[in-house]
Amino acid sequence: MTVLVNLIVALGAVCAVPLGLRLIDPVGLRRAARLWPLAAVPGALCLWLPRGPAATALALLYAAAALALAATAGARLRQGLAGTRPGGRRLPDPAGAAVLTALVSPSVAATALVAERAGYPLFGFDLDVLALTVPHFHFAGFTAALVAGLVCRSSGTRPARWAAYSVPAGTLLVLLGYFVDDWAELLGAVVLTTGMWAVALVTWRDLRPAARDRTTAALLGVSAAVLVAAMLLALWWAAGEATGIVHPTLTWMAATHGLGNALGFALCSLLAWRRLTAPPVPSSSSAPPVAPAPAPAPRP
Q1: Half-sphere exposure in the Cβ direction for 134 (13 Å, CA)
Q2: Which residues contact 217 (CB under 8 A, 6 or more apart)?
Q3: pTM for the model
Q4: What topology does CATH give the domain 2-81+91-277?
C-alpha cells in the first residue's frame, strides 16, 4: 500500500495542483503554477526516504509552498468581501467557495506530510492515518472542490450549485470526523458523496454532450463514471467503520478508490477542463476566426 499511496501523492502534488492552478486563474496564479514543481518534487521525493530529518526538511519545503497558496485564498476572500455592497451577500458564491477550499486543501495535506515524515503523531493520529490524509486532501480536497466549482460556473443548475457547496462542506466534515468519531466521519462521507455524484450527473448529462470534440467528451465521461464508483466505495468504507459491517481494507481502498479517483476522476477531469477552457485551434483551410475568450474560472 505504501508504494501505491506514494505514487498517488506524487501525482497529486506534481501534476494535479499546477494543472488546477492554471484553471483557477491562468493569469493571477501563473507564477505559482510555474514554480510549484520546485516545492512539489521535494515533497514527492521525501516519501521515498526513511522518516527523519532529511525527509522532514523536504516535506517542509512543500508545506511552505502550500501555506503560501492558502494565503492567496485568504486574500481572495478579503477582496470578495470588500467588494460586497452594504446589505449584500457576505459569503462567496458556490463556485467561489469551492475554489477557496481547493486553495486551502494542499496546506492540510502538507501539514500531515510533515508530521508523518517526522514520525510525529499529530493530534494523536496514527502515522498511517496521516499518510492517507495527504492524498485525500490533494484529490477529495483540492481536485474535487476545484472541479465542483468549474462545473457550477459552467452549468449553474441546482445540482451544480449543490455540488459546489456540498463538496467543500463534506471535505470539512470528514476532517472534523477525524477528531470526533466514525459516525461524524460517515456524515461527512455522505455529504461529500452526494456532492460528487452531483458533479458526475452534471458532467455526464450536460457537459459531456456539449464537448467540442470526442476526446474531451470521452475524458468527461470517464471522469463521471469513475467518480460514481469511487465514491460508492468511500461511502461503503465509512459506513463499515461506523457500523462494523464488512467493508474494504485500507489497502484495497488505496488500490480501488484511491487509484480510481487519482487517474479516472482527477486526471481525466483536469485534462478535460484544460481542453474546454482552451481556445479552439483555427482551421488551416480558412481564415482564422477570432478565438473566444476561455471560460471564466470560478472566483470568490
Answers
A1: 31
A2: 208, 209, 211
A3: 0.87
A4: Rhopdopsin 7-helix transmembrane proteins (1.20.1070)
